[in-house]
């Protein structure tokens, strides 16, 4: 529970003269190349008050380091010595935060030993510079890392006059700061109090000592009750302290207007998007207060979500190695004379330089929902508060965003009259040693003017003064007319903060206004739920995403996987057992409000502007302008006897006894807490501990001891390992749920965009892990740099072997040398055999002498042909009259190489990828799809010498135990099948290998016709690809076809032996290694089987565990298994046929109820094994009398031909318009005729399949069945128990087919075989139609 006190501690930080000067290696790089005045020295906490307090405990190291982030600085009268104010945050072990506020100023150094030490250091520095040692050291350290992310530093040295200290001429000054530690960020009160207290120490305005005012703030002022405000007198100035109600936004006093004015609206939205998606955020600035302001403002815009990861708004430069942590973070880094120039950035980091206004964004950053409308609303709101942001040109902005960088050139200010006066240097006051204020006008104003402009401004200024005009008075009147008073400006800032935060909260409310419907509440107690939290799903993400606009899915699908969103859902569930989280209470109240306002209306996904700004603004302004309470005055403590509070020119150390006396006076009237209050506080403590248990504890950056740094690094590694475990587990569980749904065992729980999100988050995690502990960064992607180094080492090991350019179709290893072969038959022998008429002998001699198995469509990309078998091995030992043996053909499907470099070469061949991040992600997706990710990474990390050269000892990848656990988590992903590479890169060129498996009979294994093949996939299909004569393997390149669906195989029926018996076809993706089997088992020939010379084969993926050597036996198809000329197996009964047809229809219905991106292949459900078309063939074949009455060569298509003749007799003789009752009969005859006229390539079974598919697609099959059942031909050709004659079975068939009418079935072009329905406008019967033109 937060403390009721306003301030917890007051502290003084500065130099400890008794310890001497020590270089501060934490605050900055204390190298000898810097002059003594530019170095940082160690500061001490001179005093903190109260000195003893149980909770919270004062941390001197963290306070010292953050109060003076640049260490103890020395200056002379030649420098600017104006005071400065900044804030910071201290994160404690329990995750709570203390807000610190420091007021830094410079005091004159009167200690002679310190001045002599500085003079000695100056002499040593000059001696080293003159000897050239420093220059050599500087050249040796140019490649060292001085700023995070390996920004290339362009050193900008200060002038020699400012960096030189002369003990005889110069006055030395040292910095000191006074500060406050508060549990809540009351920035305005802290700034006013510290600045007024500093002024009071220099020129007292009352007789009260400093201890009185410190005791007033520490012990006399409490945070007001919710909804109230208190007026606080602070040394001659009044400050208002207000506290919002539980239904309002929490306190936030940093002026957000400065964030938008410095960065711009569009950039702020982009950075907020990075925060919401938990990217790494790094801010750079000169001023630590600017870093704090930007960091706090960005986190405030996340409300009701809170940043749960590492949060260090001001990070010392020496702790820059924390930026390599493989966890999400928000950190700020100060830099002085050197400024970063962005060349290399992290893979998923967002880098913002607040001084140069340069923003580097992560790649593949999705767009925030309704971004353009949000930009417009924010711009109009900020304009109301006179905040005018600069906007980029849209085209320029898009180009910059595509490159990952957004940069804006600062506008040149117009020169004013007062800028013509040169700025006078700051000189110390003779009275008390205080620095005098500088002359009006900004420093460096001369450099802002163009050549010759300065002289013109001087002339204009002189003319104005000659005319008697008082320029200073005019300038003051002009500025006073524009500027508000401090109190009014504070109120305006608070109103601006409220408006901007309300707009962002309104966006989150409208995006997640239905989130409560998808929260899965547990049915157990809190302890059990906390114990099983990681294995439980608390939010129905799939259903939630299905209700969101399609354009918002890329962002929302990634956001609901973050810890920010999960923490909100956890707080929602924890509210069942305790007090509701404050942010969640506000969020839920706003959702209830918009629901009540729109009750009875249908909400649309359109953008809705915020309508609560005016109401909340009135409440806020009333509290700020009319405080209800008054704070007590400072206690009248006795001044110290030695007059320390009145020492001139130096802020004294306070009297601890006086401060303790003031604390006792204020605490004497405290009330005891009631039993109910204690019980409520205990309950809040339990819930708070539960929330902390659900979040990852952030490392304590402030502790800089070696043991603490090791512990922090261990926390980083542990957190990354925990994140890897949760992500792989989520991917595994969700993907297994998808496959179970595809098999009919459950509902689908993973959509395509969510699967892509999970894989993208895994890629981000791997980039963070590979970036941890790098010796030196070599590119944007640390993973890809590691892979390139590994590839280079492997190429050095294989330097003796030539590089194979055809890496997509790897060359097969050279087989052992065969025995000496007899000479191949001459051309004369072949002609003699040809004249004899023995075709089999001709084919045998050609096959023995010429190897056609390796002929491909693209010989440049095909592998080298294997050695042809010997003629002796192909013939029997008994001479030419003996039985011939089939030659052992070389295996055309040899395994692909399993190597990291092989997959890297495939990725490098992808022309559409342009960045290292893209290459790394493509490699990860390819390895994941091939189930080789864990194996590849294990091989990559097994090179210990390479690891030591690339990574430091504390790196994640050099922690053997954690690395092994990481690889085991990745190994678990092999349990499921991913197609993340095939589906993510649709335009890449892939090499495919087609292998035809024919019968073992020599006479039917080859064809003399010109064969061709057409491959179709989910993305596109190829054209007809000619096959080499006599060959059964072909290789071709084509744009990614996606998951393969069908193969169309055929020939032109030419030659002396065109008939071809094909068992099955296998197609392999040579990049991913995916195998597809297309069963055939039919003849291709005009004079055999059903007369088909083309077959459409439906593919099925071959399991990855089937060895390539056993592929022939695993994928073999019984020849002519569906030909009526072969005796069929026992026919199933009617109930089995009904059950199979019902399952096929139910599968199609489930297909259309799935998300569109996860529906898979409809072709497989229609024509695959156990598909709808095979089941309908069983329906029409059940009770069919073909084998008993009409011979064994009668097909179902012949039955439709007889039906056509009978039905034509009923309407051909009619004149004029046909009646409606004949429309179905005409449709049957027209469809049969159009299919029959489509070409002679289709066989009778193929024609019947096309007839079924078109009738189902056009929703005509139920009417066709009823018409066929009433036809006289059916009575002759079917038994009474058949589906077309049994009324109950006919009714069942019609009803189950009618259930498909509500779905639009889109057929692939290969399934319809070019049949165009309605091509014949007026059907006049089969005998009267003109024959169709054939190609």
UniProtKB/TrEMBL annotation:
Residues 430-446, 859-874, 1112-1129 have a biased composition (Low complexity). The keyword Transport does not apply. Gene3D superfamilies: 1.20.58.900, 3.40.50.11500, PLAT/LH2 domain. Residues 990-1098 form the PLAT domain. The keyword Membrane applies. SMART domains: dDENN, DENN, RUN, uDENN. Residues 753-986, 1163-1312 form the RUN domain. Keywords: Membrane, Repeat. Residues 812-825 have a biased composition (Pro residues). GO terms for molecular function: guanyl-nucleotide exchange factor activity; small GTPase binding. Residues 25-579 form the UDENN domain. Pfam families: dDENN (PF03455), DENN (PF02141), PLAT (PF01477), RUN (PF02759), uDENN (PF03456). Residues 395-450, 624-644, 801-830, 855-895, 1108-1136 are annotated as: Disordered. It comes from the Eukaryota. It is found in: Membrane. One of its GO terms (cellular component) is membrane. Belongs to the RAB6IP1 family. This is DENN domain-containing protein 5B. It comes from Amphibalanus amphitrite (Striped barnacle). The lineage of its organism: Eukaryota, Metazoa, Ecdysozoa, Arthropoda, Crustacea. The gene is Dennd5b_1.
